[in-house]
Amino acid sequence: MSKTIIRISQVLLLVTTLLFVSGFSQTKEKVVSDFKLKNVDGRFVSLKDYPDAKGFIIVFTCNHCPFARLYPPRLNELNAKYKALGVPLIAISSTDTVVYEGDSYALMVAKAHDEQFNFPYLYDDMQLAARNYGAQKTPHAYVIWKKNGRFVVKYNGAIDDNGMEPEKVKSKYVSKAVDDLLAGRSVATPETKSIGCQINMRK
User: Fold this and answer.
1) pLDDT in tens, 143-189
2) How far is the C-alpha of 196 from the C-alpha of 163, rounded, in Å?
3) Among 24, 56, 131, 184, which residue has the fewest nearby CB atoms (within 10 Å)?
4) Residue 68 lies in a domain
């Protein structure tokens, strides 16, 4: 083999290695920090309150958004199914209550009672959790998983592929992500586009 061919082979190997390292760094998992937010029952809730949890389904939602209003029964179903398997659901409202008075804490309490929420519904009045996660819409779902004492985002996006007609849902993104993780598999679809009302961040 000539020296020219050897050098070309070495260059190709170097380029392949650099591309692999670059691709790996771009897919690095996002680590999210804990929060301590007021629940509709008056108590403060954080992730550390669930020491035995394998992970969590975190859903940013609110009272006023028409699209978010379609999902409470499905959120109850998700929590009923996965909390027993070590993956409880926590809902968080981070909308600006100055702009949307319907998302006040008092009305959150009323909504949780009227719709019989079986999961915590937390008030993120300073929008710290939403900024930490990068939440954009209501609803915007995350599946986070415990890894070496920290929580990493394994999925983020829509809850499923049909908000208007739950009986016609074909892809249950959140459920599939949790099922993959519980089975020890990588999440097949780690990200989708969340659809709903924009979360307006105060400056």
Assistant:
1) 999 999 999 999 999 999 999 999 999 999 999 999 999 999 999 99
2) 9
3) 184
4) yes
